[in-house]
Structures are given as C-alpha cells and as structure tokens.
Amino acid sequence: MQCIEDQKVRFGTHQLSEEADDWWVSLLPTLGQEGAVVTWAVFRREFLRRYFPEDVRGKKEIEFLELKQGNMSVTEYAAKFVELAKFYPHYTAENAEFSRCIKFENGLRPDIKRAIGYQQLRVFPDLVNSCRIYEEDTKAHYKIVNERKGKGQQSPPKPYSAHADKGKQRMVDDRRPKKKDATEIVCFNCGGKGHKSNVCPKEIKKCVRCGKKGHIVADCKRTDILCFNCNGEGHISSQCTQPKRAPTTGRVFALTGTQTENEDCLIRGTCYINNTPLVAIIDTGAIHCFIAFDCVSALGLGLSDMNGEMVVETPAKGSIPDVPPEREVEFSIDLVPGTKLVSMAPYRMSASELSELKKQLEDLLEKKFVRPSVSPWGAPVLLVKKKDDSMRLCIDYRQLNKVTVKNRYPLPRIDDLMDQLVGARVFSKIDLRSSYHQIKVKDEDMQKTAFKTRYGHYEYKVMPFGVTNAPEVFMEYMNRIFHAFLDRFVVVFIDDILIYSKTEEEHVEHLKIALQVLKEKKLYAKLSKCEFWLKEVSFLGHVISGDGIVVDPSKVEAVSQWETPKSVTEIRSFLGLAGYYRRFIEGFSKLALPLTQLTCKGKTFVWDVHCENSFGELKKRLTTAPVLILPKSDEPFVVYCDASKLGLGGVLMQEGKVVAYASRQLRVHEKNYPTHDLELAAVFFVLKIWRHYLYGSRFEVFSDHKSLKYLFDQKELNMRQRRWLELLKDYDFGLNYHPGKVNVVADALSRKTLHMSAIMVREFELLEQFRDMSLVCEWSPQSVKLGMLKIHSEFLKSIKEAQKVDVKFVDLLVARDQTEDSILKSMTKVC
C-alpha cells in the first residue's frame, strides 16, 4: 500500500466488510498488551492465520511446483504461473529472475520447450513473449496446411503420449475380428474361395472409369470422371486425346539456377560430378552469411560486387529508436502524505517559441516518450536557449519537487572517483544520450509528470529532466549494471562513464566489456561527446593523465573572465565555482576571507581594496593551479599543517609532491584559543579531513610549533587537549617540529619549482641540528652545501698596535699597569 507504516493498519481494516469486519472487531480486544499499538506485521499475521492458513498455502505451493502447461495456451499458462508464484517467495524475489525463467521453461509443452530452449532467455517477459509468438506461428502454420488440404481448421498435433498410444492400440486390437478359416476366404478378383485377390492366378481386373485395378465398372464407387491432363470430364488421362502436358518440377524448398543468380544472400560453389562442373548451393542454415576479410585472404578467395542491396537496421541518427525496454529500475514519484494536486497555468510564449514547442512535442510523440494525458496534475513548460542557439524544452517541476519525498541514494564524491585512477595511462570517455529518457516511469506515477502546453496536455512515459530524485535513480541503475567493474577499470558519475587502464592491451578488453554491457542493456551513447584511447582526458571539470590531475582550462576560463561582483548573490556564485577547485589552492579560506565576510547575514555590502585583492588573487591562483598527483596507497604520506589568527591550513604530500591542499577559516570560539591549542587544532583538522588517506598507515606530521613535538609527553592537559589526544591516538604518525623559516616546501611546490621537492621527510631532523650548530645551508637540485661564518671586530687590535708605536704612550705603558689585553685604558675607557 502506498502509505506510511503507521497508517497501514488503519487503511487495511477500513477495507474489511461483513464477516471480516466482525472478525476484526471481536479479535482486537483479545490481542491484549499487543493490541495497544497494532502494527502491520501483527495484523497481517492474524489475517493470514484466519483466512489463509498454513495448509492452504502449502497446497498452493505444491500446485505451483507441479504446474505444467498441458492443454493451456502460453498466455493462460503464464497467467497461472504468475498467480501461483506469489505463494512461493523464492520465485518472487528481486534476484530470482533466473530461477523463475528455468521453472517456467520446464513446465512448457515439449514442442515449445524444444523450440525456445536454445535461446537461453533469462528475462521472464522476454521468455513469455517468445513462447507466445512461437505458439501463434505454429497455429497459423497448421491452419494454412489444413486449408490447402480442404479439411478446414485443425488443431495442431497433440504432444506424444506413450500411454495414450498404448490405449489406442489396445482398443483397436479389441475391435479386430477373429481370423476366419481358409475355406471361408473369398477372392475379390475372380470371386473364388480359398485364396485372396493378391495371390489370384487370374488376371487382375481393371476399372475403365477410374483406371484402378481390383474392381470392374459395375462395382466402381466413383460417379464422376475427371481427366488430369485436360481437366475434362468423362474420361481419364490415359484415354485423353489431347497433347500430353509437360511434367511439373517439384518446388518444395527448391530453387532453379536462374533464381540463384538473382539472390545475393546465397553462397554458391562449383563441384564436379563425373568431371562435369556443376553449381552447388551451400545451405548454412542462416538467412545471411558473413565471413571476415582475414579469412578471405587466408583462403585466397576472390571478391565480386553485389548486384542487389542489403538492408541493415541501425538506431536512428541523433535519437533513441524506441521506448526503453523493461529494466530493473523504474522511476517513481513518492509524495509527502497530505499533498494536494499541483496544477499550474501554462506560460505565455512568443510565436517563434510556439513553433519550436510544437516541433519538439511532435518529436517526443514520435519517439513515444510522451503521450496525451487527462491527468489532474500539470506543470508549465518553457524553452531555454543552448550554447549552439538551439532551444531546449524544460518542464517547470519546482512545485512538484517541493512535495516529493527525497531519494537519499548517495552520489559519489568527485575526489573519491579521482583517487581510483592512480596508475592509469589510457582513457576512454562515454557520454550517454538522453540518459534520463532511457528509464521508464512507473505506470501509476506517469500522471504526476503531466505538463500543460498551448497544444495540449501530455505526460511522460520515460523519466523527464528537471524532477527531483532523477540523478539518484539513474546513478543507482548505473551502479547496478557496472557493479562488477567499479573501481577496477570503470568510473561512473550519473551518465558520464570513464574507462581507464594501465596499458593499451588492458584497455582493449576493458573497453570491450564496457561497450558490451551498454549493448546488452540497450543504453545509447552520443558519439560526438565520446572520446577513445586518450593519454589525458577531461572528466568532471578536471584533466586527468598519467602525471596527475589539473584544473580543466575550459572550466577555469569562466572564472578568469568573471566580472567584479555587484551583489551577495554574485559573490556566492563565484565562491561556489572557485570552491569546487579549492584542493588546488593553498590557503583558499584565507584568500577568500574578505569575500566570505560580505556574505554574512546583516553585513553591509562594501567592495573595498581587500575584496578586490582577494578576488584577483583567487582568479590568478586558479589559472596557475599546480599539478596534483593521485595518491598511492602503498606509499607513505607527509602532512604539513599551520595555524594563524585567520584560519587553519595543511598540505598533503607523497614522494615530495603535493596531493591536495586544505584550509578553513577560524570559527568564532576558536579565535580565543591560545597558540598551542590553535596549532593543535590545525593538526586535528588535517587528520580529520584526510582520514581516508591516513588511517591505518604510518605517516609524518610537521608543524612550526615546537611544543607540539612533546605533546604526548605532557603531564598536564586541559579538557580540549585530552579530547583531541584521544582522537590522535587512533593514528600511527610522528609529530615533528618544522621551523617556520624553512617551511617553504608547500609554497615552492605550488609554484612548480623543483628545488625543495628534493628534500625528503627524514632529512628535517638533520636540518634542525644544522640550525642549532649555526650551519648555513645552500641548496641546489643535486646537492646541499654547508658553511659556518664567525664575525669579530679588528678595531681593538688596531688601537693596541698604534699605542705601541706612539711616543706619548710609550712612557705611560711602562709606568702604569697594563690591562690584560695590553691596551692602555683610563678607568674603563680605551685611550
């Protein structure tokens, strides 16, 4: 029942009448404590116990298991099969399609089973349809044969039954007269006794009327005589005076030489009989025969032009040929309880729009995607211009979407999809044509898709664009059909399919499998949007190659040409588009802070210099975004984190290359954190956002706050630090100190330099020791040079030497006491 769980019992008991209603009223008080809130399971259990007990269900199950077609037609047998199958849950489950087809096929009549069995049909509607067609063709064949014989319609021969034949034979034997004595036998030829006509010594008599032997004209039962030579009456063909007619060649499954010359679908060959060349027709059992060019070359066969034309059926150009077949998934529209009908007046259109609307409606009707409707529902339509100036028909389903129960089927994260492509070198991309139109709408929900136009009221038979839950339904179907190949060589996001491989040899098999799945499910792709055998591919706004992942230049072009925002709405649009690529921008949240503050509620919109600088810097960073590598699960990660009064940030690296950037602004309460807690919050932030990369493996974390290095050895911790420490203990990592003046690795990589990329994580402890020893490091791509510089003054030394040679100071130096450094001083001052 299409209602919520709490109302099922109420609606179900409302349908009871007469004796059933009296039964429920008397039963309700006996439920005791269980009857306080009667659930649907309780009601269903008691109802089945009263009106459909176990013994009856058992009989129905046995009847289903022993069901055979017998004298029933295929339609009757299928109806009986479906009726009884509901009593046997094993054959009604969603994954029981194979078992259901096997059971149905085993119950068919032997002649139908032999004809259908080789097809190996394992979709129940297709199997029933094939059986029905074969049965109708068989009846039509026997009808034609009987009409030719002049016997009228006759039922097809019944299946062979050994018991029936034995009974018939026994009945015939019972009616057979007993043998007579030899003296009682009378010869029909001479009339004598003691022998039969077939051993009669006298000449066998011949009737001159019918031309048959064994009787004379007086005994002939035939009253009319017809000549087979001239079709005249009164004589037979042997007595006919007309010229003899030429014998007729048999035409049953026969072709003359002249006919074979005009047939292009026949295979002819030359054979020799008694050294005489003859043309022979080779019967392969197929209407059309094909042979590969490689086989033709290997056999040394010649080629000749065909005189006729061969008609090949292909999908119509630019469109899907017909209504999609029955699929495992159908689109449904479940409404919020208590919803009223939604019906809106159609929008007014210009003359050119009306002309285009009429054309597109006719196209949809021809494809059988829509049909005329009498539904009380109705949504308006409008036309939207595409990039190529053509018009797209859109249905305004906003009011319907508001009252539709949302489908919570998860759409995959773009980052998770990209991570599956590590190591791939060859790519192919497939874009499905009118993807939503390849899923049927449930019959009971078609009326809800109705839309109103100037030319009538219509409703969709296939899933329309613009309705809520459509992406989730199609994503579910794509995951079903590609389930065995996901995360192996196929990535699917709604109607975009990416096939990836490490080598070209693997890609041949992977691409063949993916196309075969689409062929079996009758899903059609748009060739103009498909790309095959690429070294780098544009997918979901990113360019992916064997070297890594970068921002798609065609997508960033819209950001670089974005005009200065004039309102909060325009700022939100810009930040939404730029935020999609925030993993490519170091310190994105800090850069976007002036713009983000303008979007706060109650904030006056004032575009100042800080906003302009932030706006320009974001556009610059997007157009010069670095190449990010795809992470490898078997390689260690390195994390750099930092905190400031503006926000938190981090860089995830592997093998000295950037995997991703992450940042966020400080919350209100975090602005009051002391420096130690703020730096620890940065560590907590990066571990939380990159948990799916770091959890379960060893990695290193670097911070420019030295006290964090001794975090696990601290004896006194506040409540916040204790809470964070419990989370940090779940990870296997080393917390290291990284001086701020040396923390240029992420910045160097963001500008695509290679000097700092050569520094490995394990070298930073050595660098810290160099710093403590006052060693100077000079970097180069291949080496590191160390140096030490000591600075001291030569001024005092110069004074000392001058005092020794000055005449005025020589006597004073002898008479007075000299300082330790032999420099003459007065009090504490140098003379």
UniProtKB/TrEMBL annotation:
Keyword annotations from UniProtKB, A to Z: Endonuclease, Hydrolase, Metal-binding, Nuclease, Nucleotidyltransferase, RNA-directed DNA polymerase, Transferase, Zinc, Zinc-finger
Coiled coil start-end: none
Zinc in keyword set: yes
Species annotation: Medicago truncatula (Barrel medic)
Record-linked Pfam families: Retrotrans_gag, RT_RNaseH, RVP_2, RVT_1, zf-CCHC
Matching InterPro entries: DNA/RNA_pol_sf, Retrotrans_gag_dom, Retrovirus_Pol_polyprotein, Rev_trsase/Diguanyl_cyclase, RT_dom, RT_RNaseH, Znf_CCHC, Znf_CCHC_sf
Annotated ranges, domain Reverse transcriptase: 365-544
Gene3D superfamilies on file: 3.10.20.370, 3.30.70.270, HIV Type 1 Reverse Transcriptase, subunit A, domain 1, Zinc finger, CCHC-type
Metal-binding listed as a keyword: yes
SMART domains reported for this sequence: ZnF_C2HC (SM00343)
PROSITE patterns per record: RT_POL, ZF_CCHC
UniProt-recorded name of the protein: Putative nucleotidyltransferase, Ribonuclease H
EC number(s) from the headed UniProt entry: 2.7.7.-, 3.1.26.4
